[in-house]
Amino acid sequence: MKQAKIVVIGGGTGLSVLLRGLKTFPVDITAIVTVADNGGSSGRLRKELNIPPPGDVRNVLISLAEIEPLVEELFQHRFSSGTGLTGHSVGNILLAGMTSITGDFAHGVKELSKVLNVRGKVIPAVNQSVDLHAEYEDGQIVHGEAEIPEIGKKIRRVFITPEDIEPLQESLTAIEEADLIVVGPGSLYTSILPNLIVPGFSEALEQAKARKVYVCNVMTQPGETDGYSAEDHLQAIYNHSSPNVIDDVVVSQQMIPYSYAERYASEGAEAVMYDEAKLASLGVHIVADDLLYFDDKHLRHDAIKVSQQLLSRL
Questions:
Q1: Mean pLDDT of all residues in 9-13
Q2: What are the residues whose beta carbons fall under 8 Å from the beta carbon of 103, sequence distance 6 or more?
Q3: Percentage of the chain lying above the pLDDT 90 cut
Q4: pLDDT for 103-159, tens place per residue?
Q5: Per DSSP, what are the bridge partners of residue 123?
Q6: Which GO biological process annotations does it have (predicted)?
Q7: Which ranges of 77-168 does DSSP label H, i.e. alpha helix?
Q8: How large is the greatest C-alpha to C-alpha distance in the chain, in angstroms?
Q9: SS3 helix, strand, coil % of the chain, rounded to 5?
Q10: Residue 309 and residue 314: Cα distance in Å, rounded?
Q11: What is the pLDDT of residue 223?
């Protein structure tokens, strides 16, 4: 039986969590991953070696890999000492090394995917180093993905330079051939939109025959989506692309326990609410369900439940 082709677009923790759930189902997965990070180990390697930042790609590779737990631990291990090594993860260094060997970041990702027995394809949104910028409501412009949430003002738009970059043909082909396209979950302005604003990317999504589903974040992100509703998230996506890039929106209707809400509030975050009528007025079908998983400190999307909801959209 032919497997359904699912394309997942985003970056950060949210994407990795979802992919761990999706890979347990008999589907053909392609992950298109943002490469706009300029902080930490990724930012240092990017600056020193002039390569796309490997951090988000590293996490996605691990989430889709079929490897022993110890190998995963090794890949994610960060050096805590050593001149020049402190803060770097083994996986980031391996991605940088494979890029040097193959002469191409996307090719390096493909070869490392074989080593890790990755279930599916992992494609960087672009195959070169790009810079993410944000313009705020007052006109101020800030440069760098890591700096964007630090300003604490409402973001009007984000954009990338250089402006003449192109998405990889492989990602456009995956979108064209997909049976289902999933956007998110993940940081709206720094993980999701950096993909959608790559020239030609939104047009490919508009023309895709597959159903396009946005998985909305459960909590707001301080400095990025303060006070945002699900409608605000979707409107920001429309503002950076078009209303034809999303058909369904997945939102959690589950009540958040007070202890978790209080902990998140102390960090400046709150639950993302939604108004059913307003969300529907944006031309999408609403998929609302109890979709949360709670660990000791954080709440996450339950990857299996979300995956089941997504697969029901096929």
A1: 91
A2: none
A3: 82
A4: 999 999 999 999 999 999 999 999 998 999 999 999 999 999 999 999 999 999 999
A5: 32
A6: regulation of cell shape
A7: 90-102, 105-115
A8: 57
A9: 40, 20, 40
A10: 10
A11: 94
**What is the C-alpha separation between 123 and 174, in angstroms, rounded?**
10
- Give the residue from 252, 233, 256 showing the smallest Cα distance to 186: 233
Tell me what the pLDDT averaged over the chain comes to.
94
Whether residue 216 has pLDDT greater than 90? yes
Q: Residue 31 pLDDT more than 80?
A: yes
Name, in order, each residue with C-beta under 8 angstroms of 137's C-beta and a sequence gap of 6 or more: 153, 154, 155, 156
Beta bridge partners of 54: none
The label of the residue with tokens 């070169």 reads: 128
State the residue for tokens 């083994």: 90
How confident is residue 259, by pLDDT bands cut at 50, 70 and 90?
very high
The partner residues of 98 in beta bridges, in order of sequence, read none
Q: Given pLDDT bands bounded at 50, 70 and 90, which one contains residue 298?
A: confident
Which residues are CB-contacts of 63 (< 8 A; sequence separation ≥ 6)? 15, 16, 17, 19, 20, 23
- Residue with token string 């600056």: 47
In this structure, what token pair is assigned to residue 187? 């940081």
pLDDT above 90 (res 69): no
The SS3 of residue 13 is helix
Query: Which amino acid type is present at position 123?
Result: I
pLDDT at res. 197: 96
Inter-residue contact 249 to 284 (CB < 8 Å) = yes
SS3 state at 62: helix
Is there a contact between 133 and 142 (Cβ–Cβ < 8 Å)? yes
State phi, psi for 297 to the nearest 5 degrees.
Answer: -125, -25
Domains and CATH numbers, the chain: 4-36+165-311 (3.40.50.10680), 37-124 (no CATH)
